[in-house]
Amino acid sequence: MTLLAERPSPLSHPxxxxxxxxxxxxxxxxxxxxxxxxxxxxxxxxLVFFCLAGVMAVVIxxxxxxxxxxxxxxxxxxxxxxxxxxxxxxxFAGPFAFGGLANYIVPxxxxxxxxxxxxxxxxxxxxxxxxxxxMIAGFLTVGGAADFGWVAYAPLSNAxxxxxxxxxxxxxxLVLTGxxxxxxxxNIVATIFYLRAPGLTMFRLPIFTWNMLVTAILILVAFPxxxxxxxxxxxxxxxxxxxxxxxxxxxxxxxxxxxxxxGHPEVYILALPYFGMVTDVLATFSxxxxxxxxxxxxxxxxxxxxxxxxWAHHMFTTGVVLLPFxxxxxxxxxxxxxIKFFNWxxxxxxxxxxxxxxxxxxxxxxxxxxFGGVTGVLLAAPPVDFATHNTYFVVAHFHEVLFxxxxxxxxxxxxxxYPKMTGRMLRERLGQASFWFMFIGFWVTFLPQYLLGxxxxxxxxxxxxxxxxxxGLNRVSSVGAYLLFISVAIMVVNFYISWRRPIVASGNPWDxxxxxxxxxxxxxxxxxxxxxxxxxxxxVWDFNHPEHTTQQHxxxxxxxxxxxxxxxxxxxDTGEESE
Amino acid sequence: MSxxxxxxxxTLRREPRHFRRLLAIWFxxxxxxxxxxxxxxxxxxxxxxxxxxxxxxxxxxxVLFVVALPVVFAIWVYLIYALVVxxxxxxxxxxxxxxxxxxxxHLRIQLxxxxxxxxxxxxLFVFGTVELVLPAGAGGGEGPNxxxxxxxxxxxxxxxxxxxxxxxxxxxAYGGMETDxxxxxxxxxxxxxxxxxDVIHSFWxxxxxxxxxxxxxxxxxxxxxxNEVGAITVRCSELCGLWHGAMFNxxxxxxxxxxxxxxxxxxxQLAPVTKLLPPFSYTYNPDxxxxxxxxxxxxxxxxxxxxxxxxxxxxxQ
Lengths: 579, 317
Ligand code: HEM
Ligand SMILES: [Cu+2]
Ligand SMILES: [Cu+2]
Hints:
Oligomer: heterodimer
Mean pLDDT of chain B: 81
Distance between the termini of chain A: 32 Å
CATH class of the largest domain in chain A: Mainly Alpha
CATH topology of the largest domain in chain A: Cytochrome C Oxidase, Chain A
CATH superfamily of the largest domain in chain B: Cupredoxins -  blue copper proteins
Number of helices of chain A: 20
Number of helices of chain B: 7
Number of domains of chain B: 2
Largest interface: A-B, 98 and 101 residues
Helix content of chain B: 25-40%
Bound molecules: protoporphyrin IX containing FE, copper (II) ion
Distance between the termini of chain B: 78 Å
Low-confidence stretches of chain B: 1-14, 90-96, 289-293, 302-317
């Protein structure tokens, strides 16, 4: 590694370059290539999709609350769970992370003025919005929206079994959002590799940024496969290609292989960003550095690598995959995940813990995701999978991991960065109330589903007979769903209040550690007016707590620190010059 | 690591022995949890013991759960302990801050953790695989050429035909008769041949501990051995369209003699219908004209109703 030159501070060009006339209002939103504007648009849009999908879930749970439910028809029910799943995974959990928070935060965390390709970034958003609206618009077609599940297994998804425009719109929507994700992936990789501030070596990046790097690479591995498969499916539907139908020599299971080759990396694309958010939140509110920083990074990388070799654990019962291989790979992925757990708690160990709303959500994530991960380990044993595959046991499992990451982890990130993104604080009390509703509501909803699965209730069924004996547990689960609804409603109220009666946030309200807290809240047009010197993975903390850093540097285990340790005397000077 | 000297052993000594406390709490909770689970819940864990595969699945679930529970407890105890002991004040208060090498990493304990978790998951993998291979595929579909087969040389062949939205069963040993109720003899090895006439379904016989996808044009074989008489619930376990939720039926495991009588009687009764069926085959081509799930053996042209099948049909017209 080479010695890096100190960045002169303040920056040599403190004045804003002349951009000419800047549009304002709607026109600004429509034409902006600023990662902050796009990131906010993404965040808001994806939260709207989250709320829509949440409403669908409430309808689903209401239908199942009593046997022989008659709230919606069979057909509507199939549309509802398909769109619930599709919205949650494709339009919320992913875009919220890599289009919303990462778009806003990664450039700040690496000390960059914007994403590497701002126009591509804008294109991503518009593709995403178009795709999302296209998917939803399926409800307006004569035959209704897609109703073949979020996995669209062939040949159920072909033109004979799922005729109509709704399914076609679902396919087109996913091609559009797929390209949007790919472009965002390219952008994130380029930003992290090429736009880092001086001194910010790879092993000084915040964990969130590291996780976004691995996520972006996974996007580039996984999404093109989905996009290609969708195009093939479209050819099957409209050009009689017979790729996924037996008539004409096609192979239906090929769809499953292609889909899950995308699908399993996808679930880590949906998990790793949230792992990163939680790591940053835990460190900040424990007022400690991330414990086992490098271990975290290598764990992220190995999760990313392993996640491309486990896809067929979704196909254990198809009879066409080599079970022990995929079982072994699925088990191995638990090891790096375990490292993360150990280090997350290690980060809190001996810290000074502050239970803000963000911290509560992060801890909620730990508790929920652990249970989901462990039931995943049970599912990785083929005999147990045979008993539970496609039952409510699996539904409970993947909600613990997905809801755990995207909602508990995601809201931790949202509460944490909301002041940065808006310059306003959220009300703590409302935040905590919404957390407790969510935490309790979550277990009430999903614990009964494990039992329902074990008692034989398949997933994706619109009704069941009273004689099955599933009524009681289903009812409990539905009550939980209403609690979750209340929790989200409280959160919306919280946003509303912060909008109407703002409490102004300072640049660094949480005593944060990483570079985004060196910018104003919200950051100025090109983000930074000055940057603290970067000598560890938490430059802002070093800058604000010099007494602490000096000691830390003498004891540090970072190989690179020897190179810059001599420069510690520069700290206070920099501060004076900067303001 | 160059920092062994700065590990804050002096501070550790002044404080309570966190590690021992943790270990003690974890040990008690885990032993109590495991014993309660295994004795109280274990015997009732689905899918029960009606067949060899069901019994094995029950055992596997219990073993995995008993191993997993202490791991969950270890992390929860560690987490809750940390939360309680190091709860600080509001943001902005000044308090002692942690820095230094010990706050950043502790290589020895991390290595122990990695080795421990690796050992556990490898152990579970070996257990899971043994439990997959020994009970001849553990009741899962193994495709047309099963690798793991039961000891019994000639298990009773039962074909499961799935279509939107029902299951039917053909018994090649009884003239290829087709019933809509699954009846099996007790204490007998069974080979299910699962196939579909349209979309993908999944044959799930809950009490038998058998689940095998019904793929069109594929023979998916699953084995089990019946051990007890009792009821069978068959449910479709892969989304297959509008009435997926209504795709279930019932059956039973009966004593051998009773099965023989039933089979002979039913064979005779159904003989006129069986004559009209295509000869028994491991896969079938669906008849596009057969409104009621008619099907033809593999050599018949499926394009008997061209307008459904797109491109080919245009040529035909
Ligand atoms: C500890 C690591 C994990 C393991 C060992 C694991 C294992 C499994 C297995 C074996 C299945 C197949 C179940 C079946 O065949 O029915 C499954 C399903 C699923 N998992 Fe995981 N999983 C893990 C983590 C995750 C994560 C992090 C996510 C998402 C963020 C996730 C989301 C899902 C989803 C959505 C399904 C449902 C698939 C379907 O439609 O049937 N899993 N998991
Ligand atoms: Cu997977
Ligand atoms: Cu079915």
